[in-house]
Specification:
It is a single chain. By secondary structure, the chain is of the alpha+beta class. The strands form two sheets. Strands 1-2-4-3 form a four-stranded antiparallel β-sheet. The chain has helices spanning 6-13, 22-30, 58-70, 105-108, 118-127, 146-152, and strands at residues 35-39, 51-54, 75-85, 88-98, 132-133, 139-140. Strand 5 and strand 6 (139-140) form a beta hairpin.
Length: 153
């Protein structure tokens, strides 16, 4: 589908995506990120968490995360992934995971805007109890071993 313009892709493919991941995919594709797989995550879905997979070289992953953060999206992580198919690694691909789906209750409580910078967004996550700051100022989340330490501070 790489030969479709963004508007043609949007008209043809966007309605087929999970509603909780569609806004993330749309913004990434509009910025030129070549997505090829996505899921809003959760019960009954292929992924445990909202995630988007995309193609690209080393710099493309960082460009994609910059786009997501500029849009105020709740990026949880970005990683390189190698799938094992028929006993052989295939990849690497990029995978970006999000703290919550775009249509979840957490998203309804946020005012998202392209003009928001990543730091105030991180501060909102701390305020809402989804992340904590360590004594050194690092951010930690519930899946991070430092979470327990930060709760004791």
């Amino acid at each position: 589908m790489a030969d479709l313009s963004h508007e043609a892709w949007r008209a043809r493919c966007l309605p087929e995506l999970d509603p909780g991941i569609a806004p993330y995919v749309d913004a990434l594709r509009e910025a030129g990120v070549e997505t090829f797989e996505s899921c809003e995550g959760g019960e009954g879905h292929c992924y445990a968490e909202p995630a988007v997979r995309f193609s690209g070289d080393l710099g493309d992953g960082f460009r994609a995360v910059a786009v997501a953060l500029e849009h105020g999206f709740p990026v949880q992580s970005i990683r390189r992934v190698w799938d094992i198919l028929e006993g052989e690694p295939r990849g690497p691909h990029w995978e970006m995971a999000f703290w919550w789906a775009a249509n979840g209750p957490e998203a309804q409580q946020r005012d998202w805007g392209v003009d928001e910078s990543p730091m105030p967004y991180a501060d909102r996550l701390v305020r809402d109890g989804r992340l904590q700051r360590t004594g050194d100022g690092d951010l930690v989340g519930p899946c991070n071993p430092g979470w327990v330490e930060a709760t004791l501070v």
